[in-house]
């Protein structure tokens, strides 16, 4: 059986690894000319770590990543609103959250594939004309495969906010996310004394140079409680990534059309507020591979893809909706005092 994967990101590579190990012949077409080396830290939650464990890759993930220690949601003045207790998660699941740089996760999956599986510099075939037994649309948030299958109705919608991400050459003791009015700043420790960070503000009316935009960030966050100013001060503006925050709306009615399955951001682009985008893409790829593991003829493909759609569509769309809701809450323009009081009270209920 032959599978053609369009897109060599986290979900596409995960699907390729899973399918290859069950005997499928897999080709991955990646538009970029090489494996991506940009991106900041990604949180790998226990379910994703367990899925990698089924492929024998969990130990290597732990080696490349840093355990996420308990962190807090804070006010700009440093007052704690609620603690995010990863230790409780460890006790309940036997696993913790690991923060791993995106290039490291991509490399981990890429190295698990047979040589030549990924073909760089190729955009991939038309999914409706490809003769492979299965086509996997894993070509990201701006998915051409999704548009080909569902048209322009299902498209990315702006949230009105922009995120700046980067890695700072300074260390923090634990993770934190600071909520202000119409602004948010997050940070988490990486290995080697570095810090993954992100800053969220309303989208500027026009694009400016990195130095000018960094002045905007410093003006907004420079007087917040430590470690926010120290993290910003030790970051390189020229290496920061800037993205408008978007989400997919309306939600897709299905993830499967014919012999083509969508996964990851192509299927459910979500805001990063729950830190689940990479995890869900990884799980999509591995669940798809599991559903197709015992398929031995093209006639059996539709039922297997229907299983994948049943297992993944509703859970991922619920997570996407929850992430969007949390994102709106975290950057409220007005009523932040009420918000902070509610978040603090909710945190005490689960302590």
Automatic annotation (TrEMBL):
<dbReference type="InterPro" id="IPR036188">
    <property type="entry name" value="FAD/NAD-bd_sf"/>
</dbReference>
<dbReference type="InterPro" id="IPR050493">
    <property type="entry name" value="FAD-dep_Monooxygenase_BioMet"/>
</dbReference>
<dbReference type="InterPro" id="IPR002938">
    <property type="entry name" value="FAD-bd"/>
</dbReference>
<dbReference type="Pfam" id="PF01494">
    <property type="entry name" value="FAD_binding_3"/>
</dbReference>
<feature type="domain" description="FAD-binding">
    <location>
        <begin position="117"/>
        <end position="320"/>
    </location>
</feature>
<keyword id="KW-0503">Monooxygenase</keyword>
<protein>
    <submittedName>
        <fullName>2-polyprenyl-6-methoxyphenol hydroxylase-like oxidoreductase</fullName>
    </submittedName>
</protein>
<keyword id="KW-0285">Flavoprotein</keyword>
<keyword id="KW-0560">Oxidoreductase</keyword>
<dbReference type="GO" id="GO:0004497">
    <property type="term" value="F:monooxygenase activity"/>
</dbReference>
<dbReference type="GO" id="GO:0071949">
    <property type="term" value="F:FAD binding"/>
</dbReference>
<keyword id="KW-0274">FAD</keyword>
<feature type="domain" description="FAD-binding">
    <location>
        <begin position="4"/>
        <end position="114"/>
    </location>
</feature>
């Amino acid at each position: 059986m032959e599978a053609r994967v369009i897109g060599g990101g986290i979900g596409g590579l995960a699907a390729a690894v899973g399918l290859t190990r069950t005997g499928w012949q897999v080709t991955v077409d990646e538009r970029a000319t090489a494996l991506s080396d940009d991106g900041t830290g990604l949180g790998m939650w226990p379910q994703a770590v367990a899925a990698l464990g089924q492929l024998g890759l969990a130990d290597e993930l732990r080696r490349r990543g840093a355990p996420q220690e308990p962190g807090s949601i804070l006010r700009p003045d440093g007052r704690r609103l609620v603690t995010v207790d990863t230790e409780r998660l460890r006790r309940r699941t036997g696993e913790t959250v690991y923060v791993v740089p995106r290039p490291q996760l991509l490399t981990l999956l890429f190295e698990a594939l047979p040589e030549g599986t990924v073909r760089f510099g190729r955009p991939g075939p038309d999914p409706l004309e490809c003769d492979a037994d299965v086509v996997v649309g894993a070509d990201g948030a701006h998915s051409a495969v999704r548009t080909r299958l569902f048209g322009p109705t299902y498209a990315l919608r702006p949230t009105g906010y922009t995120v700046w991400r980067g890695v700072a050459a300074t260390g923090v003791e634990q993770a934190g996310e600071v909520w202000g009015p119409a602004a948010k700043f997050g940070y988490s420790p990486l290995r080697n004394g570095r810090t993954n960070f992100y800053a969220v503000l309303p989208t500027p009316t026009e694009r400016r140079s990195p130095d000018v935009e960094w002045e905007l960030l410093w003006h907004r966050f420079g007087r917040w409680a430590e470690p926010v100013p120290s993290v910003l001060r030790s970051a390189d503006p020229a290496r920061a990534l800037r993205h408008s925050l978007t989400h997919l709306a309306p939600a897709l009615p299905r993830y499967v059309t014919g012999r083509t399955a969508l996964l990851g951001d192509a299927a459910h682009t979500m805001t990063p507020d729950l830190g689940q985008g990479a995890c869900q893409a990884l799980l999509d790829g591995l669940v798809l591979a599991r559903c197709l593991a015992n398929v031995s003829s093209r006639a059996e493909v539709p039922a297997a893809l229907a299983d994948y759609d049943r297992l993944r569509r509703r859970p991922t769309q619920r997570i996407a909706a929850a992430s969007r809701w949390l994102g709106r809450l975290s950057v409220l323009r007005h009523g932040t005092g009420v918000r902070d009081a509610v978040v603090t009270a909710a945190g005490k209920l689960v302590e």
